User: Fold this.
Amino acid sequence: MTRGRTALLTTLGLAAATVGIAAWAPEAVLAAEFARQRLLAGAQRYAIELGGHRWSYLDAGRPRAARADMRKGSALPAPDKPVIVLVHGFTGSKENWLPLMREMSDTHRLIAPDLPGWGESERKAAADYGASAQVEHLARFLRALPAITGRHEPPALLVGHSMGGQVAGLLAARHPDLVDRLVLMSASGVLFDENEFGRSVLAGDNPFGVGSRAQLHRYLGIVFRQPPMVPWPFDEAMVQRRRDDAAFEQHVLDDIGRGPAAFALQEELPAIRARTLLLWGRDDRVIDPSAVAIFEAGLSDCRTSLLNECGHMPMMEHTRETAMAIKEFLQ
Assistant:
């Protein structure tokens, strides 16, 4: 069992007082679980104002202050870690990256924002949160990285998952100066062999929609090959979040999944100059692995890593293998 799977909402043996709190405030218990995962990953939560939005992001692997050399009595500089920016997918959040942060923070600096409109980042009524708008939002975030990391070059790697892959790919095509290397993980934005998920999206539905605990567990069965155990009250808190976001999810899906720009990335692949890693689960039931061939045909410099017995969430379901593939790609 990978570290990512064991880090998923599986806390057992809650004290009686905690169970009492959960009965009327399951969201508080979920927040506490995320705080526990941040602690394990060495991640801190921060906020920044950019382009009229308040962003929330996680930062893991920050260099420690200069430490003393006990033999010489001198100070050694903090290690200069490669910076990786992680972009979540549709219905996702920055917390999806916590297992990978835990796996990689010893050797890399990992920055994971909530895209505007999602998670704890600001959402404004009537604002555009489609793929093209998010490209420009993310470009602003990347240009602000020097204030976060103290380094003035682009991040060593930009990683986009699912919808985040669609956004990251379009950004690499439209703002090549901001992307050195790119990982497209289970990325949307191209045509792939027809599957149940794609048919549902094109029919106008939201196959990721969650309005009950039963629907939540069905959703987990779609995105994971082996769904994690999500006990009460965590599942109830997640249902509340998703229920509140239902109209927003539908609006975004109208753009990224079936709008005029839904497959713009496929058309713009030749404009991507960044060396690219395609990272996919062989059992992805959301973005069928046939999409890999489309990316390979359109990209000028790419390599592919397919993970066995893995669904749509490699960074959570096969965390260690995902980290190894990313590290090898950077090397």
